Amino acid sequence: MRLFLTAVLFVGGLFFAITGIGFLLMPQSTAPALGLVAATAEGWSTIRADMTAYFIVGGSCMIWGAWRRAGDVLLVPAALFGIALVGRVVSAAADGAYDGFVIPMIIEAAVVIVSIMGNRMLPHHKVEELAG
User: Fold this and answer.
1) Mean pLDDT value of segment 29-37
2) Which tens digits make up the pLDDT trace of 87-110?
3) What's the burial of 62, exposed, middle or buried (CB within 10 Å: 0-12/13-18/19+)?
4) Mean pLDDT for all residues in the chain
5) What single string gives the DSSP state of each residue in 28-91?
6) Domain residue spans in the chain?
7) Cβ distance 74 to 58 under 8 Å?
8) pLDDT tens across 61-86, in order?
9) In angstroms, what CA-CA distances link 126 with 15, 31, 71?
């Protein structure tokens, strides 16, 4: 089970990190796939900065946690994707549902669950141990 969990964390993190790189290098082609379109250069700058940060930080922490067997860093993607899930629930209540709105919520919930499971099952290290 631990090996499977580690693999899921690593592959998922890799997917999210690559998505973040896509937002950094090609936001005009990556953003519409998630329903994002900007009207101005300021909007594209915001999409490029915020989405890159979200996906690269979340994905990198999943990769790091899986690679180094470090449960502590998995709280970061759990928090990021958990807050995103809450935002989607609020948006569904406030703005209404749209076709396919459940799929991103399932993915975010799965990331939260897998990250928390990893946090519980993988060892916790001191910062000095992770650096060396």
Assistant:
1) 94
2) 999 999 999 999 999 999 999 999
3) buried
4) 94
5) HHHGGGGT---SSHHHHHHHHHHHHHHHHHHHHHHHHHHHTT-SGGGHHHHHHHHHHHHHHHHH
6) 2-131
7) no
8) 999 999 999 999 999 999 999 999 99
9) 27, 37, 11
